[in-house]
Amino acid sequence: MPRRDDVKKVLIIGSGPIVIGQACEFDYSGTQACKALRKLGYSIVLVNSNPATIMTDPSMADRTYIEPLNVETLEQIIAAERPDALLPNLGGQTGLNLSSELARRGVLDRYGVRVIGVNLDAIKRGEDRETFKETMTRLGVDMPRSEIATSLEEAWAVLERIGLPVVIRPAYTMGGTGGGFAYNREEFEAIVTRGLSASLVHQVLVEESVLGWEELELEVVRDAKGKKITVCFIENVDAMGVHTGDSFCTAPMLTISREVQDRLQKYAYDIVDAIEVIGGTNVQFAHDPKTGRIVVIEINPRTSRSSALASKATGFPIALVSAMLASGVTLDEIPYWRDGTLDRYTPSGDYVVVKFARWAFEKFKGVQDRLGTQMRAVGEAMSIGKTYKEAFQKAIRSLEIGRYGLGFARDFHERSLDSLMELLVEPSSERQFVLYEALRKGADVQALFERTHIKPWFLQQMKELVELEEEVLAYAGRLPPDELLVRAKRDGFADRYLAQILHVSEESVRARRTALGVVEAWDAVPVSGVDGAAYYYSTYNGQDRVPVSSARKIMVLGGGPNRIGQGIEFDYCCVHAAFALRDLGYESIMVNCNPETVSTDYDTSDKLYFEPLTVEDVLAIYEKEKPEGVVVQFGGQTPLNLAAQLAAAGVKIIGTSPETIDEAEDRERFKALMERLGIPQPRSGMAHDLSEALTVASAIGYPLIVRPSYVLGGRAMEVVHDESMLREYMAKAVDVSPERPILIDEFLRSAIETEADAIADGTDAFVPAVMEHIELAGVHSGDSACVIPPVSIPRKHVETIEEYTRRIAVEMGVVGLMNIQYAIMDDTVYILEANPRASRTVPLVSKVCNIPMAQLATRAMLGARLGELGVRSRPVPHFGVKEAVFPFNMFPEVDPLLGPEMRSTGEVLGMADSYGLAYFKAQEAANAPLPLEGTVLITVAERDRAGLAEVARGFAANGFSILATEGTARFLAERGIEAGAILKMHQGRPNIGDAIKNGEIQLVVNTPAGRQSVSDDSYIRKAAIKYKVPYITTVAAALAAVRGIAAARQGRGGVKSLQDYHADLA
Fold it and tell me: What is the DSSP string of 808-844?
């Protein structure tokens, strides 16, 4: 069937900000869809609220709307653009839910918009728990015994029939949001209540527990003719009970019989036929190896996190093919490298893929490191090797958690076997590392299987690694015999890990194995659905089959797995670098190991190496390809941390030199430079131990801001108010970076923070924009809302910031990008820090100001002068407000306070012609819409009350009733502002908690009163999250909210595409 001609314009809904359970895999799938459909001649209208993605670049779609993802906004866009069709299954759960809601409310019928790719009844059959169950019963596909409940009372009745333990699964959610295992009645009540709240339709499934069964996934593609293929068979190494997003998994299935795989495929095909999906579907099964029973757990009638993994594992671009199939093209019309056309596709490849998740438990004080049915991971790495052992070890060193192998993590090797077995009772992010040490201590494979439900085959593979490591350890202090070194390399042991456990240098390990001819060989993963494409992986277990060209080449190092502090913004920069290199006539070589991203798409660069970002792996590629240089400044801290070692090994670093990078990171050198330039800095010092820290603190005075050097995302950064806090910090901070001192700075309380990005060519620098942070000093820049252009900074300070930025960039010899953070206090601009690399604000500035920063920086790094690039300052007539998005709903035990350590997972952008409306739209896009009427609760600590009267008057002027706690009410009354009194939790009933639960409060403004109050009043903020009441924890943000509400009450205005905003720029 040829492409359909009754459709000219297609609407694609993106997935919004990066959150746990819905990350940048949807940027990847949405970008692929845009490329596929535009190539077929369709006009694309894209809607997404996330500024950090490649997808929302104006070049990706014909019309791009960075707007809040809700029905009201989408109806306005549909009315303005009049698309013929909607493709709903490429924007994750968000896109699917919104498409269903647009249909339910009659919007699609009203404007004549057809749904392509998956019909709406299919969404219901896949997503609605009741309908899905009916469909499976009709097909004769077994499911765990289960019943639907729409209230806690109904759930109790179901429990009586099924019995504990049970699993609770909310409908229309992603990442297992709100769900979980319940082993007792108290847990059951808590999880059901949470699940009903999380579900779009207030519905949960109470399901028989299949804990400990094998968890198996199939990625299936179906076309309009009903032809079906299985793209990938995925085996979760962690058994049922751990969410697939957290589970360690392999492709292909390594321990599952052909007979079971055939049964799974038959069931999956029956299901997708019944659901009538066109495109990709993920089907999850549980298999009981004791009885042979197979049950279907759930399906996702859309591209998913697993489909991104399956795409990268097999070379089959599921989103690209799904978009083509939605247009009416069929599998027998799409090329396949092996057998002609895709209708003949079968999974193949003589390699093993391992996916391993990355978590951020250390960012959330009070959270238990425990894995269950609700996803907790913030990112993942994927590795490819010829054997399971090789791929597994590559996955571990791809995680960038300071571990290059499985052994000697934390203190596990010092613990007794009994203690280790105790740690294995419940799954955690450390489980594989604990297993490794348990095996070293002599644990029995069968006993470990019974404790963890991880199959003996995987445990036996690990045991063999432990045994080989023990042989190596016998030669501590010197290199092992050649034969042993060869075996270790073939089983995936990294040079750096061998050096660490043997107490020798990494260089000596590399030199010896190179002399033995033990070097990485390379093989290809051919890409299906297109002609002549492939990407590459290394192995110590094969022949080199990858040719190299004689073209001029540049290598770009990616950012590795997503994590808090280093996310999709850096991938955005890497992708733009690859595009720019191609335009300049270079062969671009990308190195990355993140399966979720656009940088690891087969056609982003000329050559993709799917490899860990370590010195060993990058050097091997460099020596093979012999590029003219390597770009390290776009992938965040990951490649920067490699720069010095790569340069020492003879690698040419393109752009800013490693020496300059070190000058910016070395506090003493940077301080001396600022003094030479006459640029003010907060008073500061460094300490290697507690006594030094106390000496520095007494010289500067409290409060202080303390942090380790060479980290990203404010890792372990804290505001310290007194000596006891400093002692506590020093006791735990030494773990973060033992070779580096602790940095101690004067904390500029109530300062306005700003930042500026620059593009520099070594002799000149251009500052596209100055951003003003909405939260005051003390909140990490990644967590603070910010606005372009600034709204309250005097012009003279903006000019000072621009001048300082230019001077610093030129003095340091920066070539490429630089980000500098400032604070303004007492009419003085202070510099806080300078980062000679891409920052997370690059996509934001690029989109608000229409300046392709990463592309221009790449050209500057290759020798272009700013004068040649045609850059110039232009006034920005509109406002862009970035707001951070947090995972506090996934961590209900955490107090959602903002501080100097970054905790947001993603961001949104609100754009409008006024600051107030842009701020309002940003809150709406962050899923924390500000109310336009009702009651606001104000309870603010004494030290935060500057500006509070203005906030309260603003709410009153907008028609809000005000409730306040005793101290705040008295403060407001003294200023003539009327506020009703409300009790704190410990003062009696009814209190704040009751009012929030009863829906009597529409907005919470609450700042903690200090150390005592952080525990004392956290219940207010936690209750606001639980009952979905918008909450604000700083007076500065409350002031912005007042302006936003006032603007929105005057009228929301229409929607406006990014292309139209850019056309307004002079």
Answer: HHHHHT-EEEEEEEEEEETTEEEEEEEESS--TTHHH
- Full-prediction pTM beyond 0.90? yes
CB atoms within 10 A of CB 456: 13
> Distance between alpha carbon 30 and the CA centroid of its chain, in Å?
16
Token pair recorded at residue 67: 């707007």
Number of Cβ within a 10 Å radius of residue 364: 23
Segment (H or E) for 718 = strand 718-720
Q: How far apart are CA 265 and CA 228, in angstroms?
A: 10
Backbone conformation region of residue 434, classed left if phi is above 0, alpha if psi is from -120 to 50, else beta? alpha
682 vs 719: CA distance, rounded Å: 14
Quick one: 610 exposed, middle or buried, by C-beta within 10 A (0-12, 13-18, 19+)? buried
3-state secondary structure of 166: strand
Whether residue 29 contacts residue 9, with contact meaning beta carbons closer than 8 Å, is answered with no
Burial of 924 from C-beta contacts in 10 A (0-12 / 13-18 / 19+): buried
**What would the two tokens of residue 426 be?**
């419940």
Rg (CA), the chain: 28
Q: Write the single-letter amino acid at 264.
A: L
Of 935, 859, 895, nearest in space to 1015 by CA: 895
Secondary structure element (H or E) that encloses residue 845, with its range: helix 842-849
What phi and psi, each to the nearest 5 degrees, are found at residue 379? -170, 180
User: Using CB atoms within 10 A of its CB, is residue 115 exposed (0-12), middle (13-18) or buried (19+)?
Assistant: buried
- Residue found under tokens 């640029």: 679
| Residue given tokens 């907008």 in the structure block | 958
CB 964, CB 981: distance < 8 Å: yes
Distance CA 995, CA 989 (A): 10
The pair of structure tokens assigned to 997 is 């639960």
Q: What is the mean pLDDT of each run of 10 residues along the chain (1066 residues)?
A: 82 92 85 93 97 95 97 97 93 87 95 89 74 89 90 92 89 68 90 85 88 96 96 97 93 98 97 91 95 93 85 95 94 94 94 96 87 90 98 97 96 97 96 98 97 98 98 98 98 98 97 96 96 96 96 97 92 97 97 96 96 98 98 94 94 94 84 95 88 91 82 68 87 61 86 95 96 88 93 96 97 96 96 93 97 97 95 94 89 81 92 96 95 96 88 96 94 94 89 93 86 63 88 91 95 92 90
Residue 579 CA to residue 853 CA, distance in Å, equals 13
Q: 724, 704, 725, 707: which is closest to 716 by C-alpha? A: 707
